[in-house]
Amino acid sequence: FVPSDYEISIVRKDGDIRHLAVSRGEVQWNGKRQFQVLYHDITERRAAEEALRQSEEKYRTILDEMDEGYYEQDLAGNFTFVNDAICRLFGYARDELIGMNYRAYVVDKDAEDLRKEWNRVYRTGEPFRWHPLEIVKSDGRHVLVENSLLPLRNDKGEIIGFRGISRDITERKRAEEALRAASERLEYLLSSSSAMIYSAEVHGNYAATFIGANVIVLTGYESREFVENPDFWYDHVHPDDRQIVATEVPKLFEKDFHAYEYRFRCKGGEYIWVRDEMKLVRDEKGNPVEIIGVWSNITERKQTEESLRESEEKYRTILSKMEDSYFEVDLAGNLTFVNEATCRSLGYSREELAGMSFESFTVEEDIRRVYQAFNRVYTTGKPDKGFSWVIVRKDG
User: Fold this and answer.
1) Is the entire prediction scored with pTM above 0.85?
2) CATH of 66-168, one of 3.30.450.20, 3.30.70.100, 3.20.20.80, 3.90.550.10
């Protein structure tokens, strides 16, 4: 019996197409040479094979359309399949990559680590994900890829190789490094600057959500103390200034920017003056979502202003008690300050004299001389001690 096998397709009476496997052989029957033919219906098998072919074709198409690289390797680390993305990533044609060993493209410092990962996956059957590797492209350029590795099994469940995904993370790593460097610079600026940056909620006691690390330099408190306790900031505002806070902060929601000043109690118990400059952040619908701001320590400025105010008050008190007239004028000759003696001499109140030109109480023939005297003082910067002129009192 010498079989001869082939396949045919037939059309049944009902129009259904069936696929048959034909086995033909010679036999001796009653001393005569005859042929024996066996027909086996393989329609279901052919349908399953076609479904498998279409599935594999679809699978290959999907893999080739992927932006990420997909690969399969044997146990020695040689490529057995790669998609188009792998070809683009490595810079080789597919036929150049098939059969290529990992040591041909992985840099030496990473090759041994990769081998150890393969051994681990082979021993445990467990995948590993996103292991960074430095590879060398066909043109000699080095790129950083992120690699996953899974076991590749046969029908019996035996591991016969590896498969995985590779993606180019060179630009991402550069961006991460640039971000890290920028973050370090920002952290340095935030920690070394005399101003402190913060963010806060838009409701309640405007609790802090972020405080610059240099707040410890300004107040003695750590930034976490502000963030962990929603009432921490408000509780440390000077009791006499809390009404200022209650009045000033709502103004931010009218203009989206506002600045005001108040006193804050430091860890040592002393108060400092801070200037609080706030900016309101809104979402795309215009709803307030966050307050960001800058704290500046203005204690020295406030102390200087207070010293100046006390000095001016003392100066004004002395001038007011003088028997001699004292006045100040601007460059146009208008009075900007007079003491009580000047008011008595001219017969006007201080309010009436404020802004009045000296011409209003100077006799006409002396006006020119007064201007000349003012001009000498202005041009030389020296006082004129021998000057006099005739004035006219309010009562004439």
Assistant:
1) no
2) 3.30.450.20
- Within 12-65, strands assigned E span 17-29, 32-41
Q: Residue 21 forms beta bridges with which residues?
A: 7, 40
For residues 238 and 245, give the distance between their C-alpha atoms in angstroms, rounded to a whole number.
Answer: 10
CATH architecture designation of domain 186-302: 2-Layer Sandwich (3.30)
Least Cα distance to 206 among 278, 287, 285 occurs for 278
Dist CA 221 CA 213 (whole Å): 10
Please tell us whether the domain made up of 322-396 is placed in CATH 3.30.450.20. yes
Let me know if the fold of 66-168 is the same as that of 186-302. yes
CA 220, 225, 227, 231 torsion: positive or negative?
Answer: negative
Reading the chain (396 residues) residue by residue, the pLDDT tens digits are 444 577 788 888 888 888 788 777 777 777 777 777 677 777 788 877 776 666 667 667 666 667 788 999 999 999 999 999 999 999 999 999 999 999 999 999 899 888 898 899 999 999 887 778 999 999 999 999 998 899 999 989 999 999 999 999 988 888 888 888 877 777 766 666 668 889 999 988 889 999 988 899 889 999 999 999 999 999 999 999 999 999 999 999 999 999 999 999 999 999 999 999 999 999 988 999 999 999 999 998 888 888 888 888 887 777 777 788 888 889 898 999 888 888 888 999 989 989 999 888 889 898 888 888 888 888 888 888 777 888 889 998
For the chain, the domains span 4-49, 66-168, 186-302, 322-396
Report how far Cα 169 is from the mean position of its chain's Cα atoms: 20
